[in-house]
Amino acid sequence: MENTELLCEVTTSASPRADIINGLLAQLDNEQDSDCRAEIIRKLGEYPEPQVIKKLWDLRNNLENESDDFVQYEIKLSLHKAATQKVLTPIGIDFFLDNLEVFQSKDNNSQAPKVLIDADLIEEFLLRNQTTLNREAARVMGLVLEGKINPYIGEMGLIKIWHNIKNLKSREDANRSIIELLSKINVGQVNLKEIDLEKYPNVNLKTAIQVEIARKYSLAGIITIRDREFIASGYPFVGSPSLFLQFLGKDTSPASIERTLKNLGKAAMEHEKEKLNQLVENEPQHNLFFEDNLLLFQGWKIEKFEILCANNNLTSATVILCNTKTQERYTESAFKKGSVDALFTAFNEALAHLVEIKHHLKSVYLANLKEGQKGEVTVKAVVEYDGKKVITIHTHENILKAYFFAYVKAMIAVYAPKEYHPDIHRTEELTYLHKIGERDFRGLNFSQVNLMDGEANLSDAKLMGCNFSKANLLEVNLTNADLTGADLSHANLSKANLTGANLTDVKLDENNLTLLDGTILTNTIMPEINIEISGESRLEKVGQLLKHIDPQSQSRILAVHSMTDCIWWDNPLGQKFWEVNEELIKREISIQRVFILPEVPTPKHLQVIQEQLNSGIEVAWICQEKAKDVEGYRWDDTNLLISENLSVPRNSFTARRTMNGQTESGYISYQTRVVETDKSIFKDLWEKSEKLSTEANIQEQLANLNT
User: Fold this and answer.
1) Are strands 186-188 and 221-223 parallel, antiparallel or unpaired?
2) Does the pLDDT value for residue 289 go beyond 60?
3) Is 0.90 surpassed by the pTM of this model?
4) Contact status, residue 378 vs residue 391, Cβ threshold 8 Å
5) SS3 of 430, please?
């Protein structure tokens, strides 16, 4: 190029700053030579101006268009310099808000529904790990990135995001995140002086501002993880990510999104009403008898207990037991350094008048349910006796009562089990205790917990004998949890992660398909269940179960496929199932398959067999007539698949499909007897079948076998 030297030569003092920047940007747009482009980009990095940072950010997002590695390096370095340099003050959120016209996308002609995305939700997407809440935020943001939602954010929310990222990571990370957000999300601004706060007597200012933004810009709705705070605002089109995605379903078209947003307010109110009704219905059973009448057992009650703290660092506790019929009383006191120690000791001494003390207090744990001086606390007591373990939980605003009542319940369970009536525990009690590291919850009643809206983590928990009937365990993390003997009847286990869990002897309802509804069952010790299921649903669930096979578990697949009527592998379901087979082979999981063929196979039959042989599947075949009686069983109208886990045998299952005329029946079974029977039948069928090899011509092999 003749003018290369002229273009590369940039004077930094002969022109005003703006002229220099504009000149550099103009040269960069027209320059093709890599060395000159690198020089221009390097000089741009010395000017931390909005248009420069925006240009460098656009170049950074399109690095693949720069063929020269040195130019790519200069883009990254200059962006770092420009975004972190100090002018008068370091570049921060005020810099971006003052220059919105530069950083906001100018070509936003989206016809997608306009939606206010709460800053808290965006933070979950940007900062959190793969929790349930994060996955929901990611799905909502996915609709944004796909252009199916035209997103808005409030100015205050943008400021909050910048500060949080800066504090958690760095100023540069915060600046980069804001540049990215501004390129995709519109900033809604309202004048606080123009907001009539009298319209919002029961909501906070943050919520009022978001509602005003939604109204000012005629937005279709608001998606927020703080949906409860909007109930009193009077704005109807608000919902949580989970509620929005639940009602949106699989149809993510703009029309479906707009329709869902219009119905969110009503759906949210119904959701809250249902939860409130459930709370009111269950509240009379929840711990109230301890407040009204501290009944113990065998006609005794705790008439009074008190704690006094002295100046000598000792605490005095007194417990009075009274017989409700004879009015006989026992009063005992104890002096200890700790209030709980003194109270428990006094109670034990009083209790010794009624029974022979045989229990041992193993541990007592405290978890806060609500923050603040008036917040509730939950106490879990663990007591051992005669080689058994009793666990009790109690929640109370008074911390000493929480401790004492949990312990008293344990005493009833130990010394009068027939008079012990376990509480139905709340979701918060389970999740908060688990969060502080508690794992043992055996025998407790969690029949009404709803883990869908929480972090849903019960990994490594000991849940033996727990009651989870009708509980909502959607997407709950139960990895390595021990659920031996637990009641899971009518529980929602959809998409739960049960990797390595123990489900021995769990109680299920007759058709508890949620156990196989997207649930991860890798190396899970499964119960003895047999589920009758046919058609596409059976195939989908079998495919899902196969995808979760652990390659380290020494697993193998044994299969029988009848191709006597049509070539099933060519239809969409067959193709999808073949993709699952290919994935198993890539993970080095062996597959043996017996094909049942008509007397005269067609070229299409041979093509399917050849494809599976070439992929690495061990293939054998048997003709239709011979398959009609193998060990007394007719195989010509049967498909079978056995997933055998040699490392975790109770994770093995078998799936069968049988055609009787036009009627199809099928099952998925984890029953040991059924799995072993099907393995035995497959072995006999495999031995009677002819093995095929990729080293020879399949057509010749079949022709020879037919003769």
Assistant:
1) unpaired
2) no
3) no
4) no
5) helix
